[in-house]
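WARN retry 2 of 3 for item q-0093 after timeout on previous attempt; input resubmitted unchanged.
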Amino acid sequence: MKALVIFLMLFGFTAPVLLAQEDGLPLRITVANEDDLGNVTDEFQENFFEALKQKAIENYERALASLEKCEKLQPNNPVVHFEKGKNYKFLEDYDLAISSLQKANRLKPDQEWVLAELMDAFYRNEDYENAIIIAKNLVPINTRYYDNLADLYMKSSQYEELLKLLDRLDAELGIADYRLGLRQQVYAITNNTPARIQVLLEAIETNPEKEANYLNLIFVYSEEGMEQEAFGAAQDMLEKFPNSKVVHLALYKFYLEKGEPGKAMESMKIVLKAEEIDAESKFRVLNDFLLFAAPNPEYEEEIKEVINIFSEAENSPQVYQKLGEYFLIKNQKEQALSYFELGIEKDLDNFELLRNTLLLQLDMGRYNDAESLSEKALEIFPAQPVLFLIQGVALIELEEYRKAEEILTFGLDYVIENEAMEADFYEQLSKAYTGLGDAAKAADFGDRAKELKNKIN
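OK item q-0093 returned
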C-alpha cells in the first residue's frame, strides 16, 4: 500500500526562552546593555549608538563603519567586537563574524551573549564541529542549549552521540516532542524501522493523549507496507479519540482499499468539513475520491454532495481545476468548462488552467470568450506561443482575419524548436489569408504546413 500522506508534527526548537533566528540556531541571548560599555567618551558613545541605529534599519555597512571608529577609540572593548560580529553575520560574512566574536570572547570569556552568537555564526558557516564545542560550553550556563547541541549532532551526522544525548535528556527531563522528532529522523536516516516503531509505541504509552504520536505510527507502518498494523493503529486512535477529524485522513484510504466505499465516503466527508485540516490535505482527499468515483457512475450523487461540501469549506482555484478535469474525463464538457472558468476567476496566473480553459472554449465554439480570455492571458504570459495560436484560431472563427494574421505572425516568432506547433501556425495563417482573399499567401502557408507535417510523420 502506498505510504499515507499524513501531516506529522513539526520537528523544531520548542524551548520557550529561545529566540529563533532566521536560518540559524535558536539562541538565548542576554543583550549587552549600556553598562557593558565601561567608561567611554562622548565620541565613543555617539558612534556606538549610531551603529545600533544603523543596524536597526539594516544598514549594516554603515553600522560597521561606526563600530570601526569605536574600535579605534577602545580597541579592547568586547562589546564593540560583539556588535561587529553581529553585523558581519547579518551581511553573511561568517568568517569575519566568527573572528570578531572570538575576539569578544577572548576579551570577556564565557559570556552567554557572546557564546550564543558565536555558536550561531559557526552553525551558519556550516562549521558544526566548532559549533558543538561552543554548545558544550553553553550547556553549563543554561541547560536549554542541550537542544542546540542535539541539533548540531544531527547536522554533523553524529547519530550515536545524538542518541546518547537524547537518552540522557529523556531520562532526566522526560520525553519531549522535539527530541522524539530527532529520534525519528535518526531512525529514518539509518533505516532502523523497528526502532522507529518502538520509540513511537513508547511515546504513546507515556503520553496516550497526544494524537501526533498515533499519526506518526500510522505513517511508519504504512511506509513499510504493514497494512494491517497501520489500520489497527488508526482504529486504536479512533477509539482513543472518537471526535478526531485528523484520523480520517488515514481511515478513508484503508476503507477504499478494503472495498468499503460507504465508510470511505463518511471519512472523506468528515475530512472535507473539518476546519482543523488544511486545504492541501483536503484537496488530496477530494482527488482520491474523484479517481475512485470516475469509473463508478453509481456515486454521481455522492460526488455532487462532496463537491458542495468542499466548495463551502474551501475556496481554492486548484479545486475547480481538478473538478473540471474530472467532468472532462466523463465528457461532460459544459460542467467541466464551468469549473475551469470559476478557477480562472480566482487564479488567472495558473497557466495550465488557462490553457485548458481556452482549448475547451474553442472546442465548444465559445470563440468570443476564447478571444477575450487569451488576450488577458497574453498580458500575463506574453511569450507563450500557444496563447497566440488560440487567439488566432478564435479570431479566424469570428472572421476577424486581419487581426488573426497579425497575432499569428507575431506569435510565430516565439515558436522555438517545435515543428508541430509551427505547422499549426502555418495552417492557421493559411486560413487567415484565405479569409483576406490572398490566395497566393494562403497556398504558400498551406504548403509549409503540409511539408512540416510530412516531415514529422
